[in-house]
Amino acid sequence: MNLELGDRSTGAVGEGMLELLDRRLLDDGAKLYSLIDGAKFSRLNRLVSPQDKSIELYSLLGEAAVADAVYAGPILILHKARENCTLLAKLLDEYNSAGFISLIVSAENLADLVKRLVWLTEVRHEDGTEWVMRYYDPTILPHWLDVLDVEQRTSALSGTLQWLFKNVRGTNQAVDFGIFGSAKILDSRPMLLSDGQCDDLMALAMPYIVMSQLSNDNPKVLDKIPKNERYDFFYRQIEVARGLKVISAVDIKTFCILAVMFGPEFSTHPSIIKAAESSNADISFSEKVMEWSAEQWELIEAEMLLLS
Question: Pfam family of this protein, just one (predicted)?
Fold first, then answer.
């Protein structure tokens, strides 16, 4: 299981994020880092100069790191000049930077921080399988934090004082953690996520999956919905779909396409309810929708316009 969900960017972060920094923490000795999802930002190697002594760059791929693939994975950058770092300013102003960068303020020893972040890139399922946890993707980060229990958060965030990112609604956000106690990390045992945690995380990530699928089919299909409202729109529609027993990935995608076409209240239309209620193992919701006549489509559109 790898939450590789495509482009879900919400624009450039901008230096407004730096206004949320608690500079007192930095003045007291904490360090400022940027965490980059290299898979979503291919230009990093062009921006980083080997002669730039104001930064230090570390791959979080651990033993899996290959020299020519370092920039394609998660990368931690120490900014010695703190908020005044030239590279940091460039990164924050990059197009769609909200999709690849978050900032960390940490009091932890650098070597221990790198070790901790490397450890966090893999998690273990209850059935023993292991998979990549893309917490370094800022669109996944807040949802990952939400599903962790207290013990897991302590292991994940020991020494971390602030974590800053742009949230799904397009707002710069700083999560203040305070000082977590030092947590022992066993390198041979990745963090265990329960079935419930995996299900919760997938439910929180599902809107991104649907948006990626729809935009891959038609890049302009999402234009009807403001960027900063898209996550909430699709999250609600997916919840409504599941309430109507529309469960499969294909059917959820169809349901969301109809929501974009007819508006968020479309699910109250009798034709939608009938298609959901009459679907079964032999005929899916999507197949029931495909059975609609041209007249039915026109009627639904006309009636939904009255509700808009």
Answer: DUF4123
Q: Which residues contact 80 (CB under 8 A, 6 or more apart)?
A: 53, 54, 55, 56
Report the amino acid identity of residue 232. Answer: D
Q: For residue 107, count other CB atoms closer than 10 A to its CB.
A: 16
**pLDDT: which is higher, 179 or 16:** 16
Same domain, 38 and 122: yes
Domain that includes residue 271, residue range:
218-307
Q: Which phi and psi (to 5°) does residue 101 adopt?
A: -130, 140
pTM: predicted TM-score of the whole model, two decimal places: 0.86
Residues 162, 177 contacting (CB under 8 angstroms): yes
Kindly state whether residue 169 falls inside one of the protein's structural domains.
Answer: yes
3 domain-assigned:
no
Reported as a single tens digit per residue, the pLDDT across 18-71 is 999 999 999 999 999 999 999 999 999 899 988 899 999 999 986 555 555 678
Same domain, 170 and 274: no
- How many whole angstroms separate alpha carbon 109 and alpha carbon 304? 58
